[in-house]
Amino acid sequence: xxxxxxxxxxxxxxxxxxxxxxxxxxxxxxxxxxxxxxxxxxxxxxxxxxxxxxxxxxxxxxxxxxxxxxxxxxxxxxxxxxxxxxxxxxxxxxxxxxxxxxxxxxxxxxxxxxxxxxxxxxxxxxxxxxxxxxxxxxxxxxxxxxxxxxxxxxxxxxxxxxxxxxxxxxxxxxxxxxxxxxxxxxxxxxxxxxxxxxxxxxxxxxxxxxxxxxxxxxxxxxxxxxxxxxxxxxxxxxxxxxxxxxxxxxxxxxxxxxxxx
Length: 261
Fold this sequence. Notes:
alpha/beta, Rossmann fold, 7 strands, about 20% strand, globular
């Protein structure tokens, strides 16, 4: 059985990388992946536009395949990326080397105990990370601590009640026919449905939150904005349908939380 840390050594995004027919990390394969990534999540850049990042010191928590990290590093005054796992840190180091980003650096660190002083960053970005930590409360408190007064954070976390939550029984039946029955998968299917590795193992920890819970978790911040984004239906996603309609804005899979200290 994989330890929690071992699961994340397979970089989040590896499954998508393979499905795109990409086999090896090269400048060309990273460019193809990044183009797919920002096309798949076309709303992302509105949360950290180039104008917002200009002259800012930025911290990213949770690196994944580094698409967002590279964008942040190229458009900010200074970029620092952290991840608990070694593999995504190494990949981001390679991106920094390839793009010759002199004011960018990465390191291994834990989101619930960030190795930075208080009031250190103008902007913090964490997409799909802190809901996998042992404590979202501690992670958000750490983000508050390292942000400068007036600084802003953008967080993406999974919504407790969403389109995918409603359709989980349907997804489970499809998986049952495809892969057969497993007690372990039955107990952890929701985590598996949202995040799984190439071996088909679900993420070891995933927390799903409601808007009220997020309000309580971020009550130290002065300003709050909660938006819904994202859904699963590949046929429609490829054509960009329904990403901004009423249903997605109210029942989308992901919370995008914009908070200011």
